[in-house]
Design a protein that fits this description.
The chain has one helix at 106-112, and strands at residues 3-7, 10-13, 18-25, 33-39, 47-52, 59-61, 69-74, 79-84, 93-100, 117-118, 122-127. By secondary structure, it is mainly beta.
Length: 128
């Protein structure tokens, strides 16, 4: 079983930056493709925001965050990060970390939205 633990959420003002993290705790030596999904206030759907392949070779971003957000990973720590710059109020929501053991590119996960393991979410609130 894999446990995903998010950290770093909080309340920030529009135009500022925030970095959230997700640690994957699973069998030693296992590497995961990982992604960030956002559930906006009042919505049930979780929309993928960014994804990174197992070894970091490929990344994917939804259009609204391109140029502002950067997804990265520290494979030695099995940890994924999302650096969010120039935050907007519409970036607010619960950010869920997801992980998958398959070796697909980041585009695959963006297209299918299918990842097997999920964290409990980190709340990010951007005030105007």
């Amino acid at each position: 079983q894999v446990e995903l633990v998010e950290s770093g959420g909080g309340l920030v003002e529009a135009g500022t930056s925030l970095k959230i993290s997700c640690e994957a705790r699973g069998p030693p030596g296992t590497t995961y493709a990982m992604g960030w999904f956002r559930q906006a206030p009042g919505r049930q759907e979780r929309d993928i925001v960014a994804a990174i392949s197992r070894f970091g070779r490929t990344t994917w971003y939804t259009d609204s965050v391109k140029g502002r957000f950067t997804v990265s990973r520290d494979s030695a720590k099995n940890t994924m990060y999302l650096q969010m710059n120039n935050l907007r109020t519409e970036d607010s929501g619960v950010y869920y970390c997801a992980a998958d053991e398959r070796n697909y590119g980041a585009d695959y996960y963006a297209t299918t939205g299918t990842m097997y393991y999920w964290g409990k979410g980190a709340l990010v609130t951007v005030s105007s």
